[in-house]
Amino acid sequence: MQVALFITCVNDTLFPGTGKAVVSLLRRLGCDVDFPAAQTCCGQMHVNTGYREEGVRLARHFTEVFAGYDAVVAPSGSCAAMVREQYPKLAKPGSRGAAAIAEVAPKVYELSEFLIDVLKVEDVGAYFPHRVTYHPTCHSLRGLHLGDRPTRLLRNVRGLELVPLPGSEECCGFGGTFAVKNPAVSAAMGADKTRNILDTGAEVLCAADNSCLMHIGGTLRRQKTGVRTMHLAEILASTEETQ
Amino acid sequence: MSATFLGMPGNFPENSAKAVQDSQLRFNLRKATHTIRGKRAGVVGELPDWQELRAAGKAIKDHTLRNLDRYLLQLEEAVTGAGGTVHWARDAAEANRIVTDLVKATGETEVVKVKSMATQEIELNQALAEHGITAYETDLAELIVQLGDDFPSHILVPAIHRNRSEIREIFLDRMPDAPRDLTDDPPALTEAARLHLRERFLRSKVAISGANFMVAETGTLVVLESEGNGRMCLSLPETLISVVGIEKLLPSWRDLEVFLQLLPRSSTGERMNPYTSMWTGSVEGQDFHLVLLDNGRTDVLADEVGRQALRCIRCSACLNVCPVYERAGGHAYGSVYPGPIGAILTPQLRGMSSELDASLPFASSLCGACYEVCPVAIDIPEVLVDLRAKAPHAAAERAGMKVAGWILNDHNRLARAQRAATRVRGFVPKRLPGPLSAWTDTRDVPEIPEESFRDWWERNERA
Q1: Which of B35, B32, B39 is nearest to B271 (CA)?
Q2: Total domain count for chain B?
Q3: Confidence of residue B60 (pLDDT cuts 50, 70, 90)
Q4: Which of A217, B41, B154, B261 could pair covalently with A229 via S-S, beta carbons 3.0-4.6 A apart?
Q5: In this structure, are B288 and B152 located in the same domain?
Q6: How confident is the model at residue B7 (pLDDT cuts 50, 70, 90)?
Q7: Do B408 and A41 touch (CB under 8 A)?
Q8: Which residues of A touch B449 (CB under 8 A)?
Q9: Could you give the ipTM of this predicted complex?
Q10: Which residues form a coiled coil (chain A) (predicted)?
């Protein structure tokens, strides 16, 4: 199966390891992975901060780059939700843009959705002998309604001990530019989230969004907790050989 | 006399930064919101048709709002036919003048009040005070707020920021008939308030209320409450004046059935609230006046995205699940409408000309918890994002976002920017300057990788 990887600008720039993990994981599962070089950003930061014009331009660019692919996989619940949930609201009903969005948006999958709903696998053959807790990011939880897909994948990872995260459904406080526009509340939410993570005794915090992990991980590192953050793709890509 | 929100200085980030420092406040808010949140989840979860009820609530409100002109005239006719008098108020000043004149005409200088958001919104108590009329709040929490010269901080539980020892202090200090040996035991506190209020109910000749719903077909007004104090005010005084926002309308009794299920389960987390009072026009010789309040609502109705905020039934479910409200508290929002619903309602009703009002659409991480619990399915994140596009932006931010947009719109520009960032990796300070310090005050910055994903792909895969 041919798959286009939408890496997302945050992963591309700051977390290339996540992209490499997606490539190796999807190839291991028999997919032919393409990376359309012209891709950039879904436009979420601009739209959600009130810069609609710039956001619409980026959305148009996205629909042009990914038109024609049967499946587009993004290692980000937030960016996938942007395309699927918010793009349709950006174009005038009946316009060419709306038609282009209607064509592309349903083919955009967050990684765990693609694995479970399209490839129909729950055991991806991964090995990761660590104590892990999972934070369901808001846009994957309430935007895409991923439900237990990510944790079903994690439960099938050999050696992995999955511990429940108290208050898991509460926002970590990242919220894009919210983190710098309302730093006090964002930090207070982050502090409560990290306290819950530490209570689990997990070595690794896993999520389907590196942007949230950047905020939580930045807080964990500042507090010198020793808890690592890892994207879901990186755990699922791990095998005996890579450990 | 309670303080007023209008003209409050500051902005949401500053106000909330002060609030998060207050560990007592955070403890009170967390405890209260999590308790109500849990109760709501329980009574909503037991209904197999909750999502259908929610969809019905949304559809009924949307239909009513689309035909508001027609239903308002129908209501006016029904209320008038039942012996009541209907007044139309364009804005707060007009509503306050109408109510003041009506009270003056009775010759009374004291009124009792049923808990009402609309009269808080127009700051009626202050307007009456300017004309020598004293308004007494009779809802227990509103009484605590009023006695403490305080601001309400929650729609359903306005004194949520107070704990029982603070309430005891307020009662001893400001309630002349409070027993001197009053303890902070909740039954003792409510008993003191009960005796204090009973006196007022029996003495007052004029009452002022709002309403949760108005039924157009019969002209019936509906108030839901927990304490029964509202019913005292509605039934005992000779004159009753109700100030109600024009969006509180429902076409028929059949429609009301849906909302009598949605509201108590969403607000107090009860299957049914203890007291539901309904009255139609002038009852048993009571002189009844209905003041229909616009105060910005028709402007909201004209906005295609924002108009869904008018579906709101003031249940506060969104406040109780909001992680931002839980840390910031209600006062940070500078309005009688705090929390997620306030963040979309206040900027629409008041505009965004003040620094505070312009900061409200950004007072959210867009986590979506509010939308999920809203009994009339108001997509609050959608309205927030729409308002953010209309809000004024600082020049420096606008310039930065323009540059970011320019870079992100072309993959070659993005690749060059990524390589430039790679060259300075290792030189990134632990504390960043300017607005980015907001990030590094509490968090480490992520390490810039040796190479972007796209360069790695180009090097390894493209060949």
Answers
A1: B39
A2: 2
A3: very high
A4: A217
A5: yes
A6: low
A7: yes
A8: 14-17
A9: 0.97
A10: none
Q: Cβ contact (<8 Å) for B411 and A20? A: no
Nearest-Cα residue of chain B relative to residue A136: B367
Mutation target vs A (from B12, B408, B428, B445; most A CBs, 10 A cutoff): B408
Mean pLDDT of B293-299: 98
pLDDT tens, position by position, B22-50: 998 999 999 999 999 999 999 999 999 99
Checking if the pLDDT of B3 tops 70, the result is no
- Residue A1's pLDDT is 86
Q: ∠ at Cα A158 (A156, A163), nearest 5°?
A: 70
Does the beta-carbon distance from B461 to A35 stay under 8 Å? Answer: yes
Contact A12 B454 (CB under 8 A): yes
Pairwise CB contact (< 8 Å): A183 & B13: yes
- Tell me the fold of A131-237: Rossmann fold (3.40.50)
Domain-located, residue B314: no
Size of interface A-B (CB pairs under 8 A): 185
CB contact (8 A) between residue B366 and residue A48: yes
Mean pLDDT of B178-191: 95
Strands (DSSP E) contained in B226-323 are 239-245, 249-250, 275-280, 287-293
Tell me what pLDDT residue B2 has: 46
Q: Which residues in chain B have Cβ-Cβ distances shorter than 8 Å to A39? A: 411
Which residues in chain A are classed under CATH 3.40.50?
Answer: 2-118, 131-237
The answer to whether the Cβ–Cβ distance between B453 and A218 falls below 8 Å is no
**Does the beta-carbon distance from B446 to A40 stay under 8 Å?**
no
Q: What average pLDDT does the segment B245-256 reach?
A: 98
Q: Is the pLDDT of residue B123 over 50?
A: yes
User: Residues of chain A whose pLDDT is less than 50?
Assistant: none
Alpha helices in chain A (DSSP H): 9-14, 16-28, 44-49, 52-66, 77-81, 87-90, 96-104, 111-113, 138, 149-155, 178-181, 183-200, 210-222, 232-237
Residue B283 and residue B417 in one domain = no
Q: How close A161 gets to chain B, by Cα (Å)?
A: 27
Check if the beta carbon of residue B319 is closer than 8 Å to that of residue B154. yes
Considering the domain A2-118, what is its CATH architecture? 3-Layer(aba) Sandwich (3.40)
pLDDT tens column, B214-235: 999 999 999 999 999 999 999 9
Q: In the sheet where A72-74 sits, what is the strand order? A: A32-34, A2-5, A72-74, A108-110
Tokens of B400: 């930065």
- Chain B CA closest to residue A57: B409
* Nearby residues of A160 by Cβ (< 8 Å), 6 or more positions away: A126, A128, A129, A130, A132, A154, A235
pLDDT at B154 over 80: yes
Q: Which of B364, B365, B409, B441 has the highest number of chain A CBs within 10 A, making it the mutation to test binding with A?
A: B365
Contact A218 B445 (CB under 8 A): yes
pLDDT in the model for residue B462 = 73
Half-sphere exposure of A150 (CA within 13 A, CB side): 29
Question: Model confidence over B332-356: pLDDT tens digits?
Answer: 999 999 999 999 999 999 999 999 9
d(CA A197, CA A191): 10
Taken in order B72, B75, B79, B80, the sign of the CA dihedral is positive
A85: nearest CA partner in chain B: B382
- Residue whose C-alpha is closest to residue A176's, from B10, B450, B342, B384: B384
The shortest CB-CB distance from B401 to any of A49, A185, A222 is to A49
Contact check, Cβ <8 Å, A61/B409? yes
Question: What's the pLDDT tens digit per position in B359-414?
Answer: 999 999 999 999 999 999 999 999 999 999 999 999 999 999 999 999 999 999 99
Pick from B12, B453, B461: CB nearest A182: B12
Tokens for A194?
Answer: 């990290």
Please, what is the average pLDDT of chain B?
95
